[in-house]
Acyl-CoA dehydrogenase
Amino acid sequence: MDFSEPSEAVQITKALEDFIEQEVAPLEQEYEQFLGQDYEKHIVDENHRQVPAYREVVETIRKKSVEAGFYGMTMPEEVGGGDVDILTRAIVGEHMANRPPGFHSAIFGGAGGPTPILLACDEEQRERYLQPLMDGEITTCFALTEPGHGSDAHHMDTVAEKSESHSDSERSGTAAENDGDEWVINGQKVYITNGPYADFAMVFARTSGEDGDLHGITCFLVEADNPGFEVGTIHRSMGMTPGQHAELHFDDCRVGEDQILGEVDQGFTAAMSWIGGGRINIAANSVGTAQYLLDMSVEYARDRETFDKPIGHRQGVSFQLADLATDIEQTRQLYRYAAWKMDNGDRARKEESMAKLRGAELANKAADIAMQVHGGAGYMKELPIERNYRSARVFRIFEGTDEIQKRTIARELI
Ligand SMILES: Cc1cc2nc3c(=O)[nH]c(=O)nc-3n(C[C@H](O)[C@H](O)[C@H](O)COP(=O)(O)OP(=O)(O)OC[C@H]3O[C@@H](n4cnc5c(N)ncnc54)[C@H](O)[C@@H]3O)c2cc1C
């Protein structure tokens, strides 16, 4: 058994560190207001929308990342990607998370960037959606969750019905000619990451079957200027970069057959087959963040003295660090094992969920221990710990809550 990191992961990490130093760090210095103590106030306007200057920084990094070959790294070569496997991507993600808050999260595009779900695009859709996305010219969003259904998203209320064609001018100006058939989407989505800025959304709607059926859900590619589609309230969230989550409204939103991704009625099952990679990335990200917080805390515990001794010499402190270091190593091996199984084409539902579950717990535990070890200093905004404390919480909720991961693990067992 070889536990060393694959050489490709080591090389990419090194290249990314150089890229961050040369291309990203100067922007972090120039736009310090988007990273400093008052970052939230500077990033959004009074309507909670991200300000143009912030959007431009993100776009600049995205374009530089495309040029350097990091963007769309996990996508296949045939669409211009790097064909990097799940394990390599996750290990690189772990190293990227092991650093102070910065703009590096824009390097891969996050929820707005390329996703293997779009490999279901036909030739024309590849040209219209996937290629510009791979080139960093446009962004997307994944619109599944609704006000009434999150964990049970397949019970969705959003529907799409087939209808006679309206004139093409009522649809997006760039929409291609269709064969006369259109679909009319009605419904609402919530908490959609990158929803306010996406050039097109991957929207899931029921097209046939009964409430709760996994089949009978279709994925539509809806462009931002499509009549009947509107961005609603921009949510105010707890700890993530503000201004990125929104409600999306579909009110008699007409789209053409050419905007169906993959097969009619198969959108949900197709999208779910890709979700495991996302769970592993969250676990890897948690390990990187936890390692960053542990290293910071160890250093502090060595230096900070109370009652004439470094606090790290007290078991009350050192045992917290020992526990955290053990949890980090456990979760690291767990996500790497899950990724290795996936890359080998083995069923890994249980392991993906275990990694996501433990990763989400770890991110929260690490922020809590780091704050405790740092005492009052950890609670203040001068250090990044309080930000980590707030941003870690969502890991237990999105991409499947803790309880849904346990449900999946139990189902695989029983
Ligand atoms: C910051 C953020 C970004 C997001 N981005 C996106 C996005 O880009 N696209 C998108 O589509 N969605 C997105 N989501 C939505 C996210 O996926 C859902 O919030 C999540 O799946 C949970 O759904 P819910 O909020 O409706 O909670 P619910 O499903 O209502 O769950 C409420 C509680 O009940 C528990 N529960 C539910 N069912 C069971 C069960 N069977 N057994 C035990 N416990 C159960 C849950 O674990 C939870 O504790 C985002 C959410 C957040 C917070």
Summary: Residues 38 and 381 are 9 Å apart (CA to CA). The first helix runs from residue 7 to 30. Residues 139-268 form a domain with the Butyryl-CoA Dehydrogenase, subunit A; domain 2 fold (CATH 2.40.110.10). The beta strands are 140-143, 159-164, 181-193, 200-206, 217-223, 229-234, 245-256, 260-261, 305-306, 309-310.
